[in-house]
UniProtKB/TrEMBL annotation:
<protein>
    <submittedName>
        <fullName>Pilus assembly PilX N-terminal domain-containing protein</fullName>
    </submittedName>
</protein>
<keyword id="KW-0472">Membrane</keyword>
<feature type="transmembrane region" description="Helical">
    <location>
        <begin position="12"/>
        <end position="37"/>
    </location>
</feature>
<feature type="domain" description="Type 4 fimbrial biogenesis protein PilX N-terminal">
    <location>
        <begin position="13"/>
        <end position="62"/>
    </location>
</feature>
<dbReference type="InterPro" id="IPR025746">
    <property type="entry name" value="PilX_N_dom"/>
</dbReference>
<keyword id="KW-0812">Transmembrane</keyword>
<dbReference type="Pfam" id="PF14341">
    <property type="entry name" value="PilX_N"/>
</dbReference>
<keyword id="KW-1133">Transmembrane helix</keyword>
Length: 445
């Protein structure tokens, strides 16, 4: 009996040992599996991280390319701009590494290589004829002229190769600029009475970008306003153009906002004049353009009164109260539901100003026109100036391009000094007709 018990005990010890060994074996298998899984996850994470680094490097190259393509003659870093003059060369391309101040390398050591070229198309399926450059104006158009009617800027293909220590990513992007259609009808365009005073000169003959006569030959009026409004010359004021003065514009189609002056509607308006896209947006801060090393460039959008720049600048200068609407501000009891301003005029009972009497907006400071007033300077501005109201330009400033005012009941006063407004289609094309890039397509190779 004792021997039998000892045998059973021995068998149990052996069985326990086998169970323990099997358990340890399973733990070993599980541990090895977890190790390999963790190692695989780490490798995947590492590869994803490396891929992300090279992807972000490629996107950095795209950002630099877009920034350089957006540069124009109005930018102080104009030497870093890249563009192809009309007629477009189907073989045009640009290696970003040859550009001034090329970045190319990020702080973490990653780098990018970028090439830009025109998008081309075989428009006639004939291999013996040259391809044409594709242009964009809310759709593709092949074109060899610039800018042809209804067509826009060339479509650019950006190929950016991003490199990290262990990875490489290629991003290909198609972009183009949205062209402006500026509504300029003279050296000075207005929707009200215009007084040209003193030794002021408004010259609608076409000038080059330096203010010399003999630009592209696109002569226009010196001063042009809407029908029913007078143009008064006082003192020794001079007005030249074809014709010198004209008051035949249709007030019903005259632009009521900077967006309309620039020919922008819908999304394109926000693309251009969104505060984030302007070089400066906000009320006059007491320093912008005031001869302190901060000249006006690109798009400057002043949301209140502004005395005008006192140092040389260029681009588009807008002096406009966003709450100012000529239809509302200038509405009177003569407006009824047949008037084009009826939807927004005070006579509409839905408007809170309806019960305030005739021209109620004249007493509402929040909707007053922004004024370019007492513009005393000897500086030169190249491009386009748009103001709600112009009230006296003194000193000897020179505007090469054009000026447009929006208000229809306030007299626009130009003069008292020796200022010149010299129409220049070249200045408008180079400094004012800038376009922000629109992404058309994107893919990663």
């Amino acid at each position: 009996m004792k021997r039998l018990l000892n045998k059973i005990k021995g068998d149990e010890s052996g069985l326990t040992l086998i169970v323990v060994m099997m358990f340890l074996f399973l733990l070993t298998i599980l541990g090895m599996t977890m190790y390999f899984m963790s190692s695989t996850d780490l490798n995947i994470s590492r590869n994803v991280f490396r891929g992300a680094r090279s992807f972000y490097a490629a996107e950095a190259g795209v950002s630099e390319a877009i920034a350089r393509l957006n540069l124009s003659a109005s930018d102080p870093k104009y030497d870093a701009a890249m563009y192809d003059s009309a007629p477009f060369d189907i073989n045009w391309s640009y290696d970003l590494s040859t550009a001034p101040q090329f970045k190319g390398k990020l702080d973490n050591g990653d780098s990018y290589e970028v090439n830009i070229k025109h998008k081309t198309i075989d428009d006639d399926d004939d291999p013996t004829t040259p391809d044409v450059v594709v242009t964009y104006d809310k759709g593709y158009f092949p074109s060899i002229t610039y800018p042809a009617a209804g067509e826009g800027y060339a479509v650019e293909v950006i190929t950016s190769k991003g490199r990290s220590s262990d990875g490489e990513t290629v991003v290909v992007l198609e972009i183009s600029k949205i062209p402006m259609d500026i509504k300029v009808e003279g050296a000075i365009t207005a929707n009200s009475e215009v007084n040209v005073i003193g030794n002021f000169c408004a010259d609608g003959r076409d000038h080059d970008m330096e203010g010399n006569l003999g630009g592209a030959g696109n002569d226009t009026a010196g001063v042009r306003t809407t029908s029913g409004n007078s143009i008064t010359l006082q003192g020794s004021a001079d007005v030249y153009g074809t014709p010198p003065t004209d008051n035949t514009l249709d007030p019903n189609t005259y632009p009521n906002s900077p967006e309309e002056v620039l020919g922008l509607t819908g999304a394109s308006a926000s693309d251009y004049l969104d505060p984030a896209n302007c070089d400066y947006y906000g009320p006059y801060d007491g320093s912008i353009g005031m001869n302190n090393g901060d000249p006006l460039t690109g798009i400057t959008y002043i949301t209140g009164d502004y005395p005008g720049p006192k140092e040389n600048g260029s681009g588009i200068l807008i002096i406009h109260n966003p709450n100012f609407n000529p239809c509302k501000y200038e509405a009177s009891t003569s407006v009824d539901n047949t008037h084009p301003c009826w939807d927004t005029a005070w006579e509409n009972p839905a408007d809170p100003h309806y019960y305030l009497g005739a021209n109620p907006y004249h007493s509402d400071s929040t909707v007053q026109p922004a004024k370019l007033g007492n513009y005393t300077s000897n500086a030169t501005f190249k491009g386009l100036i748009i103001a709600d109201l112009v009230d006296k330009i003194a000193g000897t400033p020179v505007i090469i391009g054009a000026m447009v005012s929006l208000s229809s009941i306030d007299i626009q006063k130009y003069g008292t000094g020796n200022a010149d407004v010299l129409y220049s289609s070249e200045a408008l094309n180079n400094f004012a007709s800038m376009g922000f890039s629109k992404k058309i397509s994107w893919h990663k190779e």
